[in-house]
């Protein structure tokens, strides 16, 4: 795992698998990101409104919602329409996600390599799309 410069960027992770959520959180914190993890989407909008994350990592399959519908909600809401979103999924592919009307800034299939996750995050924060 490569060390990045201190960033203090605020990242919200919504992932229902607690083991995956814990690993992502620990890795991002070790890279100097400020991380909040949620296992359900119910509090997503409230958290975004209060904490203004710089990036959202969003699992597609959640127990209380579909990540694609949540992305649509973000993209059609004035304060969150430009929030960078990296979607992750074990079931879907980039082609499934990129054909929708509302597109994330990036997609990463599970399981993923930690360095690839960090590269995608850094790239999306720099304005790239994957």
TrEMBL record:
Residues forming coiled coils: none
Positions of modified residues (4-aspartylphosphate): 59
Keyword Plastid: no
Pfam families xrefs: Response_reg
Ranges of residues in domain Response regulatory: 10-125
Keyword vocabulary terms for this entry: Phosphoprotein
Keyword Phosphoprotein annotated: yes
GO BP, sorted A to Z: phosphorelay signal transduction system
PANTHER family: RESPONSE REGULATORY DOMAIN-CONTAINING PROTEIN (PTHR44591:SF3), STRESS RESPONSE REGULATOR PROTEIN 1 (PTHR44591)
Stated name of the protein: Response regulator
Organism encoding this protein: Pedobacter hiemivivus
